[in-house]
Amino acid sequence: MTERYLSLLKKSLLNELYLENEARILGLLMQLLFPRQTTLDEMAREFLNARHGELYARVQEMRRGGGWIQIRTNTADGTSSELVAARNFAFVAHSMIGRARMDNLHDCMNAVLADRIPGDFIETGVWKGGSTIFMRGFLQAHNIHDRKVWVADSFEGLPKPSLPEDENWDLSADVMPYLAVSEEEVRELFERYELLDEQVMFLKGWFKDTLPTADIDKLAVLRLDGDLYESTMDALNALYHKLSPGGFVIVDDYNALPQCEQAITDFRRHHGIQDELVRIDEMSVFWRKR
């Protein structure tokens, strides 16, 4: 029953149970933005049969890798650009990491348990909290009471770039408002899954302010999703020395954002870390600390 519960929890967090509804939302949005000649009966058939349509197949493929369908339009100069506001319609799931990365997190926690690696679990940069909700569900499913899940985020989006490595990568709430999810919303989602309790610890604020003084003794899983060079480096500098031998570092955007990759490369070089970087999917990697 443990694995069945965790399997269902992953499907729920990734919205895999209701992908046809995502396809319906996107289909209606596209009809609104780019009207096409159709009848109400035709629209109703497409709506009811969404699971068998092309849009459903594309949503399903995106969910495997943690991506999303971009809705684009032509600008006045003839180029194509994304309608960024449309992401608010695309981000329906409670986690953006996709099936491969969610399975990787599950595998890492299973290994920690099997090999008796001491320490808590943390994610730095949680969005709606999906990964940390799964971490807490994992502890509950295995009846583990001596580990905590740390939920670290500004809950106000990403900081403005302040380092040269992050130049031209403004992902702050002014530019990417859908990345700014409040602590109240994340807590509400934990409650919705009946997983908010004393083993869930919230760290609200910029990583440079919260992580160095966090009351964390040991970590077994360190999941990094800070996107920026600064955020990634702040998390590593504050937490890596607390990661137990045999523990895991998971880097969500290593292959997606060059500044994130640069932070990992610089940190590993500076500390002489030669543990193998293992690819998870097109975006992410992890390594196990020796």
From TrEMBL:
<dbReference type="InterPro" id="IPR008884">
    <property type="entry name" value="TylF_MeTrfase"/>
</dbReference>
<dbReference type="Pfam" id="PF05711">
    <property type="entry name" value="TylF"/>
</dbReference>
<protein>
    <submittedName>
        <fullName>Macrocin O-methyltransferase</fullName>
    </submittedName>
</protein>
<dbReference type="GO" id="GO:0032259">
    <property type="term" value="P:methylation"/>
</dbReference>
<keyword id="KW-0808">Transferase</keyword>
<dbReference type="GO" id="GO:0008168">
    <property type="term" value="F:methyltransferase activity"/>
</dbReference>
<dbReference type="InterPro" id="IPR029063">
    <property type="entry name" value="SAM-dependent_MTases_sf"/>
</dbReference>
<keyword id="KW-0489">Methyltransferase</keyword>
